[in-house]
């Protein structure tokens, strides 16, 4: 913009000369742009500016939500969070598959959920605890989580609920759907998403969600549980599709709770259908 403006101001254009007021305003605009243009690395300055603005935005958004006014939450690109997502799902899936007793699995799952809700209560009672936890988990946290229940707490709660059903394959597919589908959708949607549809989600991100969760689910059912191709495709596909549906429409319910629950429902019903 600056280069184009300099060229426009300095070129010998009879029409521009005939309009000195216009040229004067262009010169003023050129000076303003020069004054406020980044003096070093544009990306670094933008990231620093965004880091300063995001907490203020979420403070304002929190007060508006309290008045029943919907304001979208900020979800900036965060590869560390995506990796953390995959790690949690992998760890949970490992416990689910390797621990031989459902009672032990359920105790572990509910202990995690209880720990999460205990931290949520402490953050509401003591603001310093909230500041400490947001600093501690800052690399993997979204800005809005300073004012709302942390997604990890919803994640732990969903695992506890699913473990209580004692249904191995639906639980495993729910973890795969959340652990692969959600972060892949976030990466693809932010990087290549162009066509927007439900709740600001992109078609590209949703397709990536379904494909990643479907492939991961089929690999789990065939490689770990020895299922045939037909039931693996049907059951994993149902989990992936309902998980993607939950990700699209979970505006008031955190998707870390909605996605695994809906994926479990899809896998369970498809499992009944294919026997």
Automatic annotation (TrEMBL):
Keyword Membrane attached: yes
InterPro entries in the record: Dgk1-like (IPR037997)
Keywords: Membrane, Nucleotidyltransferase, Transferase, Transmembrane, Transmembrane helix
Transmembrane domains' residue ranges: 172-193, 205-223, 229-250, 257-274
Keyword Transferase among record annotations: yes
GO MF annotation: an example: ATP-dependent diacylglycerol kinase activity
Full protein name: Phosphatidate cytidylyltransferase
């Amino acid at each position: 913009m600056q280069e184009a403006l300099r060229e426009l101001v300095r070129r010998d254009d009879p029409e521009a000369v005939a309009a000195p007021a216009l040229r004067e305003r262009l010169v003023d605009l050129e000076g303003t742009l020069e004054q406020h243009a980044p003096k070093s690395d544009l990306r670094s300055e933008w990231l620093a500016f965004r880091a300063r603005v995001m907490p203020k935005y979420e403070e304002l958004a929190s007060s508006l939500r309290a008045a029943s006014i919907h304001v979208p939450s900020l979800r900036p690109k965060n590869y560390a969070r995506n990796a953390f997502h995959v790690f949690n799902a992998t760890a949970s899936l490992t416990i689910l598959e390797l621990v031989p007793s459902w009672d032990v699995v359920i105790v572990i799952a509910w202990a995690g959920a209880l720990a999460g809700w205990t931290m949520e209560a402490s953050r509401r009672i003591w603001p310093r605890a909230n500041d400490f936890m947001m600093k501690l988990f800052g690399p993997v946290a979204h800005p809005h989580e300073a004012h709302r229940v942390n997604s990890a707490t919803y994640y732990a709660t969903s695992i506890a609920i699913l473990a209580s059903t004692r249904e191995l394959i639906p639980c495993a597919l729910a973890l795969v759907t959340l652990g692969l589908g959600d972060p892949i959708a976030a990466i693809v949607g932010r990087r290549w998403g162009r066509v927007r549809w439900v709740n600001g989600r992109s078609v590209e991100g949703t397709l990536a969600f379904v494909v990643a969760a479907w492939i991961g689910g089929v690999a789990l059912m065939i490689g770990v549980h020895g299922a045939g191709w037909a039931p693996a495709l049907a059951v994993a596909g149902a989990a992936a599709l309902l998980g993607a549906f939950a990700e699209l429409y979970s505006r008031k319910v955190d998707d870390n709770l909605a996605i695994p629950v809906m994926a479990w429902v899809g896998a369970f019903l498809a499992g009944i259908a294919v026997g």
